[in-house]
Write a structure and sequence with these properties.
Elements lengths: L28 E5 L15 E5 L14 E2 L3 H4 L9 E9 L2 E2 L5 E2 L6 E2 L5 E4 L6 E4 H13 L8 E7 L5 E7 L3 E4 L11 E4 L1 H4 L3 E5 L4 E5 L1
Parallel strand pairs: 8-13, 9-12
Antiparallel strand pairs: 1-2, 1-14, 3-15, 4-5, 4-8, 4-10, 6-7, 9-13, 10-11, 14-15
């Protein structure tokens, strides 16, 4: 699939794209388990696991309310050829400073215009992080102005859960590249692609049919 999201485990594609693996099988849910000690015994670092399931792996009675809703905006509204596993970011901070653009005031109105939605795509085919070109360039400018020692030092991505909680995904000095939004869809606002650096030590469970993702330690 486009972008290699989840090692090709995209489920839905448009008619012009070759059918995906999940789209041709009965699997609608999966878990990528990168927790330390998983299956390794003795608290050591175990082997990563990939679990595929025909039944939902997230259930409402077992903490399913703590899941993060997945959104289909990039496909439905902006013409992406696949349905990415994406969520809206509540905040993205780098070295304690916000990476996302703030709301701006319109000249003809006293009310600030809302900031554009920031979409986070979860991609296990990416080792670090990719961000939209404008975010990348703005980050370079701000880091020089603030004389920060590290351009992408401590990165934190905050996601809102279905029941009003928060999930915080973090990484230290993730390898970060600039992203041309046109390779994904027509959306020109902030897009952040998160890779393995943010998933290390976590189990990420996706229910593609239900449109939700959960992160477990």
């Amino acid at each position: 699939g486009q972008g290699g999201v989840f090692l090709g485990l995209l489920r839905e594609t448009d008619a012009k794209t070759y059918p995906s693996f999940l789209g041709q099988t009965g699997y609608g849910s999966f878990c990528v388990d990168l927790r330390h000690g998983n299956g390794g015994g003795g608290g050591g670092r175990g082997s990563p696991e990939l679990v595929l399931s025909t039944r939902p792996l997230i259930r409402d009675g077992d903490g399913g309310g703590d899941c993060v809703p997945l959104v289909r905006d990039l496909h439905r509204r902006y013409g992406a050829s696949v349905v990415h596993y994406a969520a809206r970011a509540a905040a993205v901070n780098v070295n304690g400073r916000s990476l996302l653009p703030a709301a701006t005031k319109k000249p003809s109105s006293s009310r600030p215009a809302p900031a554009p939605a920031a979409y986070v795509i979860f991609d296990t085919g990416c080792s670090g992080m990719a961000v939209s070109e404008e975010l990348y360039d703005e980050r370079n400018v701000r880091a020089r102005e603030n004389r920060e020692k590290s351009l992408w030092g401590d990165v934190e991505v905050v996601l809102a859960t279905r029941d009003g909680g928060e999930v915080r995904l973090t990484a230290t000095r993730p390898f970060t590249t600039s992203l041309d939004n046109r390779t994904l869809s027509r959306y020109r606002g902030p897009i952040i692609v998160l890779g393995l650096a943010f998933l290390d030590g976590l189990a990420m469970t996706v229910d593609a049919r239900e449109g939700r993702v959960r992160f477990s330690r």
